Structures
1.
Amino acid sequence: MSGGPATVGSVILVTGATGNVGRNVVSGLVDAGVEVRAISRHASVSGLPPRVDVVEGDLSDPDVLVRSLADVDTVFLIWKQVSTRNHPAAIDALARHVRRVVYVSSLHVDDDADEQLHPMSQTHADIERRIQRSGLAWTFLRAAWLASNAHQWAEEIRAGDVVRIPNAASSRSPIDPRDVAAVGVCVVTEPGHDGAKHVLTGPERMTEGKVVLAVGDAVGRSIRLDEVPPGVARQEMLDEGLPAAFVEATMSAWARLVEHPEPITTTVEDVTARPPRTFRVWAADHLDAFR
């Protein structure tokens, strides 16, 4: 299939359209004058711009997906892990109906490994490979740890000055979801990105402990970290019902990120001609979640 930007007059379908990345993709495409359709579980309360055609349903439902594809040229694909069990049939459906897919993946996908080190990376790798075999034109946005993941500590920060954290030394390169979206809008609307695996990061490395402290600084509070020992963290995840293999892979991933931090790339600026936002900027723009 041919590459290039979306065809004039065609529809762009955005999945995960009410999430941290997807909502910003929708807004960016609308601002660019692109006709946008979105899938949302709750169309009536999606809060998306009125010009967006919102289809109610879940991506894991093949009937909803096919119903959404009329006149669609490109799908901006964000897949929640809980919905990926149906990904082979869904990708096959995309291959029958659309020209191109832009897929939000993970920078932890290793092209040289048949078996990835973590189940979530394995899911992303499996989806990437299915897309590559489908005949679709494609671009992968392999994103680093999203700054919005800091919301996991919001309840504790609102409640007091102590945050329990089992992986304070794991080193990330947090990226603002708005920057992932900005790259996505460029990829959809500009030529030259077919077959690219764009690795997207923020401009600096931070341990997860420093991320928490930076949120405290943003809200004007002195936060104390209560570092959870590995054995306690492991047992707590098991007690939550997480599969043992997932827990062990997560513990190993945290340990690896101490010795092998997430990389820093210039891709956001290379694609958008604007430097990526720092984590502190993201925190300052989302203070209400932590107060």
2.
Amino acid sequence: MIEHNPLLQNIVRFALEEDLGSGDLTTDAIIDSEKKGKAFLISQESIVLAGLFIFKKVFLELNRKIEFETYYDEGEIIPAGKNICLIKGQLLSILKAERTALNLLQRMSGIASLTKKYVEKVEPFGVKILDTRKTAPGLRWIDKYAVRTGGGVNHRFGLFDGILIKDNHIAAGGSIRRAVDLARKGNPNNLKIEVEVETLAEAEEALQAGADILLLDNMTITQMKEVVRMINGRVMLEASGGITLDTIKDVAKTGVNTISIGALTHSAKAADLSLEISPDTSNAPG
């Protein structure tokens, strides 16, 4: 189960330690430890919900007796102004966990929401949207989870589970062919070899060298079409580099198989969510 991933627990504990330090001076001074309360998690805009189980884990890390009533499931689209869940229990713990829990959920839901926009743009063309390694340090696991929740597909998780020969590898290795040959010799798990290319000539060289996937880096639409024609389905083609919501349809129409978008994780706007302490006792969903 994804909720039990040990990396998740490490992320939650480190984030809380970073925020709380030696203690919450404001909350400890104002709120009696015996006081109980409740708070609603509210979406201020329409979002794809991603990371609610992590949001809950933050509160439970401080107090195992915190309770939740959940009104939406992971991956659902939440309309603006709706209550997502109700948190009940020791008010001291709720207030101490609030910011950390929101920060994680806002980031993840923002990534999922942006990913869904890209996925919807290319759906008619059968093209998959991929993420990259351009994630927040220490948060890659949750960033990539959020991409999947939004309908995207994870590229390699890190340097250890995929071979991608980029321009600097080619420069250091001497040529595309030599870099591919060396990568194949140092590939005990027989992983597919992907090569970044910027021109039609480089694409031809990579194909002849035996590359399994070509990453078309910062190519124009015309260049992409030429490569697609030349390759003619012999290997997978990934487009990348400066592709936006305004241009992605034109890229998808060229015939590439996948499109990788670094902005999914390095530039997604945090979802607008808030936690509001409720003065009454009603538990009705939004």
3.
Amino acid sequence: MGASRQIVTLLAPICFYAAAHAQQALVIEGGTVFDGTGRVRPNSSILVRGDRIESIASSGELSVPAGAQRIDARGKFVMPGMIDVHFHFNVRSDPRVSPSLPLLFLANGVTTLREIGNWIEEENKAWLSEVAAKGLPAPRLLFTGPTIDGRETALPDQSIVVFDENEARRAARRLMDEGATSLKVYSKLPLGLLAAVVEEASKRGVPVYGHLGIVDPRDAIRAGINGLCHTNMLIAAVLPPLQSEAFRQAVLRVPNPGSIEAWANVDPMGERATALMELMKSHHINLDPTLALHEPVREGKGPAVRDQSFRNMTAFTVRYHRAGGLVTVGSHGKAPYAEPGFAYLREMEILAEAGMPASDVLVAATRSAAEALRLKDRGVLAPGKLADVVLLDADPIANIANAGKVHAVILGGKILDRAALLAAAPRMAGSNR
């Protein structure tokens, strides 16, 4: 077979393309293409040149350049690289969350990670340099930097504590100057200082997310916040006023005073939940639910109140999606009922189990995530977009668990060596489903 018909078989070990061939054309042929918008195109091909998608067409209609390398994707499901909007990993070798975790996520098809909490220069950028020095690819790592918080923060090693408006504005500017593409405010930051952070970020078009506590989510929304982390932390907005105020005050004493258990008494179809959803939707708030983080103990061994709380939180989340709200997928890096590297998949499964159509879950993991993080170059498969592509061995629309059956990952037009990525995380290697 001539050079112009060179086939790359994905059943054999896959190597990186050499830098000298960065502009070489790559064709992904004959797969079922899910473009990130919900559209499915059977028997279609994608032409990639360099790190960008050049065109997508039905197989047989695509003009293939001479010398292009070709991937036989027949029988494969082809989709955009997934985007994790809420990712944590500890670069200081925390045994609970290995510093190799981002590489495992990349091997599992999550090509963009927004890390929340690490220090930008000392931790995230240093980690990227170490990975590059080992000759390994890294996911597209976005960062907020440490959270911006108030007095007596619960996360002293992951927070910048501010005491007045000047400090809040300075912290926001500093993080953005260092490369933060979004910011996160934490549970003890007062409303006035939260508003100052939002105002500084809005000047640069940078979204602000909140893990709220002493600030009522409704007040944060009216102050201009863009995203809310953790469905459980919306609790102050769906409780009666007396209980809501008690919760806010309790945050001053403990980091998370029963925010999950309190959901057991919340009606996700009730008046307060409906009013909150309408306010969130009117302000185009991104809900980053992290439901897998709070999945209750299985096999009936946990308290019934946790089971009811979890059902109510998932019902609220899916109802917000059905109402047209912007829901995304965030793994938190780890989850109690997911093997290392599969917390993102477990979050997707929970959304589907709660009634979110699998196709919508895939959109939440791709296009919606890019929209929420204001990333115009990814999240969909379309001409001009980054060639971040995942090939699956089975259809995740038929069963969302198939999103974990990754056959190959393409990052910026380069086919990754998944075995090398898995080997870089030896304590996690072998995690599979």
4.
Amino acid sequence: MFEISEKIKLFAFDLDGTLYFGEDKAPGADELINSLREKYKVAFFTNNSSQTGSEVHEKLNRLGIKCSINEIYTSGTATVLYLKESGINNIYVVGSDSFRKELESSGLRIVDNYSAENLVVGLDLDFNYNKITTALSVLLKEGKFIACNEDSFFPVGKNEYRPGCGAMVGAIVSSAKKKPDYIVGKPNTYILSKIAKAYRVKHYEIVVVGDSLESDIQMALNYNSKGILISPNGIDKNENIIVMENLNKLLNYIRKN
């Protein structure tokens, strides 16, 4: 277990399953964030591509977690950045209406038929056989395959879960026999690298807080940062990880350090 030292400058928080569950705020989330702001910078990230940064910003403030839109990083927004940096365009999109609008508003061209040159896959609650068929046609033409993430599921509150973006990616991978060329979201470090650049902090000055060892905390470790796992069943076996039962326990720990 590491200690919160003077080297730490930024706390980066996962959202789904950490600060909220569906429309329910995690107990102590607002108090923890407000307390951290007295000494540290704070950022928020999510692998969920179905909502824009503006929509996530509105939700957080509605739940009483005060923040600015510039502090929010979604896999959807990060995917837009990656596509533009990589020169990938003329895309067939599997994803939500919000995600599609985010792509189009950035100047990217969406093609809704077999003539698309590349494929981008995000969380799509209306995923179906026809979308797999079109995605397959793009990949058979050797188009690029970009995935927002490969999350198997995500929490929606009251101990309920729904299939994540990984379910869409998996169906297409199975059909086309091709894995994504690039996965933007965690545990890849792309989002965290963008946060570090925006806040002008080094990897060792960042603590990532999340509920998933395989996703949130692995991203931190991949970036050589520290991680705090929020889990009632977690076991601390790594000197770069702290395990806390809940956010209130984390708040008490930070206040003591």
